[in-house]
């Protein structure tokens, strides 16, 4: 027994009425009632205290007990006499009379006496019976419940009791009892139940002392006793009694060393052994672990390894519970668990890849807290978040974004660039919810760190890419994406609720810092909003007209158009119809809407109108009103929330400050020149959408100042703004008019070509006496033309061309003499300078000679002159078309004097092809374009020069998508199947998809279009395509399998897109067209047997493809197709053509056979191959900026989609090519060795195989090669292919039968056919590859080894052609956008070989490859 501290040293004062106060505690003690002893011993009572028996009243018992209490309080352990004297009394107080007394005052006083007795008689208690001791301590414990009510009169005595027990550690006596645990459990439960927020710190301290002494001085803590502590940590109990939780928390902290093994044993029993019956708290183990860890991690030193075991449980729900727990432990702010327990941390990170979706979801949610509380762990989390950002579950991808954005909004330094990159990727997610979260998250980051600059310039720079990325999303096809971008722009990029000056400053510098594609997207956004405003304006105009059937039909069409510009167009149609009905009934609503879309509506007025319209349509009884939401979407798109007259004035002032040098340009991160140029471009775009807002003298004065600046781009933009907005200048602002006219005259005569064009159009648009003004420009320019000074010709030619187009009645006739005497005779038919023979196929604009630029402008002048006249009465169009055709036949060298360079010839070919295509947009000229001229124009898309193909395809798509070109020109895209560059083929396919969808949509939206189906229905492109391919210069032998495979690839390139859907039984319709063509003759050469045979052969290939790809084509055609008479004769009555022009074996070869070997042109950072395309032969060279090629061969599959696949080839030696560097393939001689690695393609070609399958071409002198070589470059591959062979542009050289190759090159091995073949297998062209159909294999031809034979080893390396964009991003990027129209700029330049053309037999123009460089007649 321990020696106990003396409490009697604290004197007790009698305060009367039975109250006693110690000097240290001053407590009140109510009176109690005693009871006499029953054991017969003599009991000595303190002086003045009579005997306490059951015969007296309770009040008397209480009164006498108070005196006893005072006596025991005054006694100390050294009072031996008194101890002996009062021993019977002490025993008597433990009798049943007192312990079971029903009076609580009596029980309290007795408990106080007993507590003092244990103090006085320590270390030996006067009670020897264990049962009696147990009864006494249980009795005392029950009295402690009185501590609960602090306002009770007896609370001071209860406190004295607690204090006495805690100081004396009286309960330690119970350790000698066998069932002491029952007492301790009861004590702990009592103390935890009575503690409350009214207790002061002393009460809690005494309770802690009492309980901690029991825990720390005992032999251990039983499970029941541990439960009595831990139960207070469970959330349910914690919420009920916060003080009990705090008490348990402090108790555990104080006893951590003692209680930790007991806790470890408990969790071991439950977690590892699975004995949930050991405690009622087993189901709360994870909650307990979390609380214990928060209290003191040392409490769980032995438990954490058990959690690692649980993380690997086979039960998904159990893993989920552990992950939730550990997420809280690792993520809590002060936790260093991840550092202290790396194995557990790594095991936890593994749950990011758990098979159970909720586990992965919980792991991702944890990452947010972890990033915010433990930035040092971001590196560990990044890789796992990367994988989860591509999780198949939408919710997980969504939460990855939320995690990163939440951390980023807290502090941008918490998220690295890689994490932000994950969010960037998800802006193109296939699910709208994920895309929306990513876009909104990025927008919030941009607004916080860029607009508000909350974290300084470094943070702003870190997220500066966000504005560009968000605007790029406007190129997506989904209307939801477009609407969200518009919302983000209005709320985050340029908040519309800012004051006008602040808002325009924000817009001004945003526009100046955007990348070109983002600028195009923003321009397109304003354009779309303006177009929607126009639709709504036209709808309101229809409401003003009297009701009629035509009016209703027009109104319905307009409603459908508006619905397409809203989310979920299907539902939107119903809501728009309902809104239209409301407009018809409510004139006030109509007037509000008219005000909203009027050109003079200010931003503040727009805000009021939107709120007023929404208020009228709101229904208080319907909180969620989808109709109102849809109307709000419409109003938000058409309301001018950013731009009005005040805003334009603010923009102009900002630009003036930049010009004066007083603006904050440098602080905003842009140079003054950039700011001025971007500001003018911004104003130019807004002049299209908000022309009325510009009409002020102040604005025009600033624009005149810009016209006088040296920056050509600035002046050009200013002229265009005048052109778009100056309709009232002549009447309202005469001073501006008088200043503007001489400036426009000067720009039209001596400005840049673009300025001249805009100046002429500006004069034509805003001045009433435009004829006089234009004549003052036309006459001096037409007289001063001098071909000997070409650099001074370009601007006059541009001005003259546009003048003759805008005012044909006045200037068409005088222009005719200019065209005949100067343009054609003096300029186009003469080469005054000699081009640089550097082998380049394309040069930058600044390197093109002035003479060639003048010739290009001369060709454009011819076209503009004809487009102005719009008639062919003078047969000028026929002459022009013949001239353009001759230029194409001569490859751009019209004079054939060989003085013009390759790159200049490319420019002129492009100009000639584009000119024919431009003339075809005018019906009167389209009629006179012959099939031969059309075919020549079509072949430009297969030009040898990459840029020619690129720009021509861009122009073709732009005209087709606007329905300006006849349908036959869409057939030209079929030839893109021959393009060796994968990106070009992908772009062509996107163009086809867009064009076809636009035409089908147009037919649906315009009922009158059914009368023009022949020119609109996409399926009607099939006969044009068949005719074009039948006259393909590559198609010379109708029975040659390789040529037929080429034809099949071209057909399928178009048919694949057309056959995506079988709309109105279109498959059968196309089949019927092909069958009908076989009943006609080729109108181009009806009496030519070979020409008709080729036509019928192409028809059979088309039928073969259609039959193999569609099971629905055998149905009856919905209508009998009409064939174009320009290309096909009328079917003869007695003519029956049931002959099959391709054999069954050929049919099988086309569908399933081994693809032929194809060469590849290394272009645009990586060489690509495609089935059915022969190689472009290129020679090495060191000239920079050139289109250069080396003959190499890569085989590709004959699969239907093989054109989308490519083979990468190792390239060394980079040659510059303007936009994209070109890699020159290094050719290393190596010994021939069979290789069977399927990763290596047929990059290994043998010595004598110079022109792949075709005939061997004799080498020509280096001076006649298509690419100029330096002497040291000629021996790049002495044993390899003959590099001097000249190919025609856009197409590879024609092959001869395999036998011819074998005769000429006995030691050569033909290149492999097939996909990713490594070993060179020599099979005849008719051999088959195992495919969908079986066909007999032919014997391999004998291989003749040669001792000196060496093999070209083209070492391979992967060269990425893009930034790793997903398919969705490629399809939606600006280069692919039908709106931006710059479909092909992204791919840069390439290098292909040249072609020669000549007039061939058969009476029609034919393009043919030849070796000699002779002039053509």
Indicate the percent of residues in helices.
Answer: 40-55%
Rg, please? Answer: 47 Å
> Largest beta sheet: what is the strand line-up?
1-2
Q: What class would the helix/strand composition place it in?
A: mainly alpha
Task: Give the termini distance in whole angstroms.
Answer: 129 Å
- In round numbers, the mean pLDDT is 75
Largest sheet: 2 strands, antiparallel
Number of strands: 12
Beta-strand percentage range: under 5%
Low-confidence stretches: 1-40, 1155-1417
Number of helices: 58
What coarse outline follows from CA principal-axis ratios? elongated
Structure description:
The strands form six sheets. The protein has a two-stranded antiparallel ribbon. It has a two-stranded antiparallel sheet with strand order 3-6. Strands 4-5 form a two-stranded antiparallel sheet. The protein is mainly α and 1417 residues long. A hairpin with a 5-residue loop joins strand 1 and strand 2. The chain contains 58 helices and twelve strands.
What characteristics describe this protein?
disordered C terminus; 53% helix; single chain; two-stranded antiparallel sheet; two-stranded antiparallel ribbon; mainly alpha; 1417 residues
